[in-house]
Amino acid sequence: MNNLQQTDQIIRGWLEELRMDVLREMRDPLAVSEKTSRKDLVTNIDKSNEKKIVSFIRKFDPQAQILGEEGSGDDVKDMHGHVWIIDPLDGTLNFVKQRDNFAIMIALYIDGKGVLGYIMDVTSDIIYGGGPEIGVFTQSHELKAPANLTLREGLLGVSGPMLVHDCYNLQAIDEASSGVRILGSAGMEFIQVLTGKQNGYISHLMPWDFAAGKILSETLELLVTKVDGTPVDMLSSNDVLVSTRNTQKDILNMIR
Ligand code: 2AM
Ligand code: CA
Ligand code: CA
Ligand code: CA
């Protein structure tokens, strides 16, 4: 593999290429099917994006393992060596119902350490990408660490079902914040926290939902842990808390 700056440019090129395909293909009727429920959908574009990303990675980094949501990758059992974790289309329900507010996410871990992460907001054409060695950039500027806001000083992103079921005392936690937001895409929620528009996000997520966001968040001094503050497991589902340091402290004092 090339050095990180070159790899960064190559991944940004893949994302721009995928974006052009998605914008063209989404004008045609989508082939939509249900996975586990009518709220858990997959489309032809989730599947074709994943096949394309897997084929880019296979050519670029042939020894790597690939973990992808739609199963075109490998059956990854450990984080040794190069592991790419990809969500070919995040926010599929938004994509189907809104044709907006969805993302493509790509992450590279080497021996368990996050090296490069990318979240592309497709309709806005903004890539949030980079990692601990090179910083976090869009196409136009570098992101700085957001202000270390407390819970009451900012907006908290949450998963709708977790709020409705009051998991972890979430309704009281939301009351204590300035307000709650539900965007329906983990990638779009991570973007809000990275840019300081929300001071946190809580959701039940799979590895491909948080792999890229974790790398970018940690590069910007944000914390990504389980809701109880313990480390996330990169190969299983987790109830994830993304937040500023002060907001994490406030939330850990209120969870039950
Ligand atoms: P997805 O669109 O890639 O499936 C809101 O639903 C967020 O949670 C989205 O980022 C979605 O990712 C993710 N998510 C994870 N598991 C889900 C599930 N079982 N049903 C719907 N969304 C899920
Ligand atoms: Ca899905
Ligand atoms: Ca997802
Ligand atoms: Ca997805």
TrEMBL record:
Q: What class of enzyme is it?
A: hydrolase
One GO BP on record is:
inositol metabolic process
Q: Which cofactor does it need?
A: Mg(2+)
Positions of Mg(2+) 1 binding: E69, D87, L89, D209
Which residues are listed for Mg(2+) 2 binding in this entry? D90
Output the Gene3D superfamilies linked to this UniProt entry.
3.40.190.80, Fructose-1,6-Bisphosphatase, subunit A, domain 1
Q: What EC designation does it have? A: 3.1.3.25
Q: Name one GO molecular function term.
A: inositol monophosphate 1-phosphatase activity
Look up the domain of life of the source.
Bacteria
Keywords attached to this Swiss-Prot or TrEMBL record, sorted alphabetically, are:
Hydrolase, Magnesium, Metal-binding
Q: Which SUPFAM superfamilies match?
A: Carbohydrate phosphatase
Pfam families in UniProt = Inositol_P
- The name this protein carries in UniProt is Inositol-1-monophosphatase
> Which PROSITE patterns does the record associate with it?
IMP_1
